[in-house]
Specification:
The complex is a heterodimer of chains A (483) and B (129).
Chain A (H helix, E strand, L loop, with lengths): L2 H4 L36 H14 L20 H7 L2 H4 L11 H18 L3 E3 L5 H18 L7 E5 L5 H8 L3 E5 L9 H7 L4 E6 L12 H10 L3 E5 L12 H4 L3 E3 L2 H4 L14 E3 L11 E5 L2 E5 L18 H39 L3 E2 L10 E4 L1 H7 L3 H10 L6 E2 L8 E4 L7 H20 L1 H5 L12 H6 L11
Parallel strand pairs in A: 2-3, 2-4, 4-5, 5-6
Antiparallel strand pairs in A: 1-7, 6-7, 8-9, 10-11, 11-13, 12-13
Helix pairs in contact in A: 3-12, 5-12, 6-7, 12-15
Chain B lengths: L7 E2 L4 E5 L5 E5 L1 H7 L2 E5 L6 E2 L4 E7 L3 E5 L4 E6 L2 H4 L3 H4 L7 E5 L11 H11 L2
Antiparallel strand pairs in B: 1-2, 2-3, 3-9, 4-6, 5-8, 6-7, 8-9
Classes of the chains: A alpha/beta (483), B alpha+beta (129).
Chain lengths: 483, 129
């Protein structure tokens, strides 16, 4: 039920409303003829409504959430708590630097930590989401080539396993996308890459480990091919969790990286943000970083702006980015420390490989059985679909009945009927075993009671949704009943 | 997998039929619609617009993904199938009947560069990871 449907005229919680203010004198032409269409409910109605909604939701606080590529790890409460210290919460974005030295010190330290973790020469924290980080990264590639008068480079190379955001980013920055294929083991096809690069190559965008859940072993050869052609290497930080504290993109030869703090550094996911996508660059791109960045000088910390960085690609937010999110990531990084970072990668990889081995033992087919998983792996239900009619979406829906959030379905598109499964480092062996047990049951049901799986979910507030109707007949706006 | 032998194909899963007036009719293959799943939206190219071979000229969006459609040969669009605007599912029901657009080829010889049914079958097969 919508809160609008609970509405009764005159009902409300007026005793908590702020004291009335004198009514401003507005020109009659600007006054509305009818009251605004807002729900009128009691405080208790409102509390119950939103509590019930939260109970209908699947979340990391209530369920295992192995949504591949999204790194749905647990966000420690301490990050939230410390980011809400009054000195942070009350800081005004336009406050003079002298009044926010503590805040600037945290942001400066976060820049330094991200430099160290990624192996890049310089970092800017300002991009407000992963996608904006990507945009900033490719805009810097463009600025670099432009600064050398090299206007011939019009193409960004993207492997076919890439996130959809990569070609979208290239297009936003005015580049054409050139796709290179992936071989049967999930690696970039080096011959295809060699024939794709040339004087038109502005750069290559790569996720490593890739969206196929495997580490690209030829990364140094890839670097040499792209650099040899005069292009730059862009690292999509989506899967950084797998290599945190182990391998550094800077050491692999990447020139630009964006980091999804909401994935690797445990800041809030979903609900449309707020996100944060800091960018790191090699020395030759440092002058193009988006401003402001925080500098540490003798007298303290200060913002560097267009004045000190005249060749910057500019600003991506009115102020210093999503500072509240950056602070959460800073606390997380400080709690982990250097050793903790490496443990994140250790356990993320261990959990993924354990889950992969157990699911294979349960009878599920792996997309890349000969490869060790990174932090995530792919199960293909192609043969199950052919023999029983039960595909990836059916298994995903049946998992909901069993109390698990579904893995990512039908991505990457390279593998048919795929489930992309990412357990993250914060889950226990018991949770992983319970997930395997549920998957075993579903596999059994697919053979013995396929209708049960086909029509799942059965235990949730809504049954199987009509995907097609949902995509085509969007109806998101409540309107009062004309009667 | 249905691959009619009287049509030609591209590695990007378009089918092409040469009409008697020299125009070429384009749609997506049975294999393509099967991989995409239920199609919810189709964007066809504007009539009169010219494309080079392999240039993006349309979009097919399904419940799983959005995929670009590429011009199988270079030329000018002479017709687009308006029916798909309201009933994109026609592509799932009848992929070789639900054409997307027609092109007047700039160079009719490009027809010879397209894949025949046997060659396309190999492409579709090799993609089945």
């Amino acid at each position: 039920m919508l809160i609008f449907e609970l509405s009764r005229p005159g009902r409300g919680s007026f005793h908590q409303a702020p004291a009335p203010v004198p009514e401003p004198q507005l020109p009659p032409a600007l006054l509305r003829a009818l009251p605004p269409l807002l729900p009128e409910v009691s405080e208790l109605d409102a509390v119950r409504h939103y509590t019930r909604l939260s109970q209908k939701n699947f979340s990391i606080d209530t369920q295992f959430y192995p949504l591949g590529s999204c790194t749905m790890k647990y966000n420690p409460r301490a990050c939230n708590q410390l980011a809400m210290l009054p000195g942070f919460l009350a800081a005004h974005p336009a406050a003079p630097e002298a009044a926010i030295q503590g805040l600037l010190a945290c942001l400066y330290d976060l820049q330094e930590i991200l430099k160290e973790v990624t192996g890049m020469a310089a970092v800017s924290l300002t991009p407000m989401a992963g996608a904006q980080g990507e945009f900033a990264g490719v805009a810097m590639i463009r600025a670099y080539h432009d600064s050398r008068g090299d206007a011939e480079r019009t193409e960004i190379i993207v492997p076919d396993a890439a996130h959809g955001t990569n070609p979208a980013t290239a297009a936003m920055c005015g580049y054409a996308t050139r796709e290179v294929s992936t071989d049967r083991e999930g690696n970039v096809d080096l011959a295809a890459l060699r024939s794709a690069v040339g004087p038109k190559t502005a750069g290559l965008m790569l996720t490593n480990p890739s969206t196929l859940g495997v580490f690209e072993p030829s990364i140094e050869a890839i670097r040499d091919i792209v650099h040899g052609a005069g292009g730059l290497l862009y690292y999509d930080g989506a899967n950084l969790n797998a290599i945190l504290g182990k391998v550094r993109p800077g050491d692999m030869g990447f020139d630009v990286i964006h980091v999804n703090l909401h994935k690797t550094f445990s800041t809030p996911h979903g609900g449309g943000g707020p996100g944060a996508g800091p960018v790191g660059v090699s020395a030759r791109l440092a002058e193009f970083l988006p401003v402001p960045v925080v500098a540490k000088e003798e007298g303290g910390y200060r913002w560097l702006t267009e004045l000190e960085r005249p060749r910057s690609i500019g600003r991506l937010s009115a102020h210093g980015g999503n500072v509240g999110v950056l602070l959460r990531a800073y606390v997380y990084a400080r709690m982990l420390g250097r050793e903790g970072m490496a443990r994140v990668a250790d356990y993320a990889t261990l959990n993924a490989n354990y889950l992969m081995a157990e699911l294979a033992r349960a009878g599920f087919e792996l997309a890349f059985p000969r490869r060790r998983a990174s932090h995530e792996f792919i199960v293909s239900l192609k043969n199950l679909k052919e023999t029983t009619g039960i595909g990836a979406m059916d298994v995903a829906k049946r998992l909901l009945d069993k109390g698990f959030h579904a893995p990512t379905t039908y991505f990457p598109m390279l593998v048919s009927e795929c489930l992309l499964i990412e357990p993250t480092e914060t889950e226990s062996k018991e949770t992983l075993d319970a997930f395997v047990a549920a998957m075993r049951e579903i596999l059994e049901e697919a053979h013995t009671r396929p209708e049960l799986v086909k029509n799942a979910p059965h235990t949730l507030p809504v049954r199987r949704l009509d995907d097609v109707k949902a995509a085509r007949d969007l109806n998101l706006t409540w309107k009062p009943n004309p009667g | 997998m249905s691959i009619p032998s009287d049509l030609k194909y591209t590695a990007t899963h378009e089918w092409v039929r040469r009409e008697t007036d020299g125009t070429m009719t384009v749609g997506i293959t049975h294999h393509a619609q099967e991989q995409l799943g239920d199609i919810v939206f189709v964007e066809t190219p504007a009539v009169g617009k010219a494309f080079k071979r392999d240039q993006e000229c349309g979009v097919v969006e399904s419940v799983k993904a959005a995929s670009d459609i590429y011009a199988p040969v270079g030329g000018e669009v002479t017709a687009a199938n308006a029916v798909l605007r309201d009933t994109p599912e026609a592509i799932n029901q009848d992929p070789y009947g639900a054409w997307m657009f027609k092109l007047r080829p700039a160079d009719p010889a490009e027809w010879d560069g397209l894949l025949d049914a046997a060659a396309y079958a190999k492409v579709a097969e090799s993609e089945a990871h």
